């Protein structure tokens, strides 16, 4: 009940943000971030209606991936920093990697994908705000990276992701979200992102409404759904 109520409230806030931006609610996918909770709570979230779930560490995700049967139809999203030697544990098990943040990781994913004969859906993480603590490519590095990444047949590039600085006032991070959207539009128009790779993963519990107003297609929501 608790999760159903929280999910309903979240969807209502998303609907309002979409309405303000003149967007269709179907354009925004909620990725429920389950890193704070265990298997049972994760199952309750699924029962409440969520099918897209996000984890930022393979060790924390693994017990849930094992305990939750295929029939539940969960799409797992890898959203955290991915060590190169863990890439093999993620590809084929997660339906989207949001956090491709360096060339060496892209190369490793590509290599492993080719071995398995699959393509791996990925988003490119961009450090729009320029904070030292944030991972991702600097905007000016993207053209060079994407030129190499487009030649990697094991990568299925779907769009961009960013993390905004933590803030009490989401309005202050609007330029970060707008910046990611503008980068996507520019890179798509110039062919550095393949046609149709227009996903934008941006916005968390504290700032998702602003992210949606600026074009988010995935919001990664933990605390407001699962924290006590
Ligand atoms: C934990 C986490 C989130 C969710 O954050 P909340 O503020 O709890 O909603 C989103 N994205 C990433 C990459 C995370 O690690």
From TrEMBL:
It comes from the Bacteria. Residues 7-226 form the Alanine racemase N-terminal domain. The modification N6-(pyridoxal phosphate)lysine is found at residue 35. InterPro entries: Ala_racemase_N, PLP-binding_barrel, PyrdxlP_homeostasis. Keywords: Pyridoxal phosphate. Coiled coil: none annotated. Pyridoxal 5'-phosphate (PLP)-binding protein, which is involved in PLP homeostasis. This is Pyridoxal phosphate homeostasis protein.
């Amino acid at each position: 009940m608790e999760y159903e109520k929280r999910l309903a409230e979240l969807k209502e806030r998303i609907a309002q943000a979409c309405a303000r931006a003149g967007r269709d609610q179907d354009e925004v996918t909620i990725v429920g971030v389950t890193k704070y909770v265990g298997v049972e709570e994760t199952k309750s979230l699924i029962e409440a209606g969520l099918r897209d779930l996000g984890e930022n560490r393979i060790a924390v995700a693994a017990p849930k991936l094992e305990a939750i049967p295929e029939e539940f139809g969960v799409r797992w999203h890898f959203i955290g920093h991915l060590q190169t030697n863990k890439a093999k544990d993620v590809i084929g098990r997660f339906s989207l990697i949001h956090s491709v943040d360096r060339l060496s990781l892209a190369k490793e994913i590509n290599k492993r994908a080719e071995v398995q004969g699959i393509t791996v859906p990925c988003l490119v993480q961009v450090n729009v705000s320029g904070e030292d603590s944030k991972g991702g490519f600097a905007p000016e590095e993207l053209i060079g990276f994407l030129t190499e990444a487009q030649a990697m047949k094991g990568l299925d590039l779907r769009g961009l992701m960013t993390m905004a600085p933590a803030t009490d006032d989401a309005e202050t991070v609007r330029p970060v979200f707008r910046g990611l959207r503008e980068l996507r539009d520019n890179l798509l128009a110039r062919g550095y992102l393949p046609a149709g790779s227009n996903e934008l993963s941006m916005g968390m519990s504290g700032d998702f409404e602003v992210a949606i107003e600026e074009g988010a297609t995935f919001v990664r929501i933990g605390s407001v759904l699962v924290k006590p």
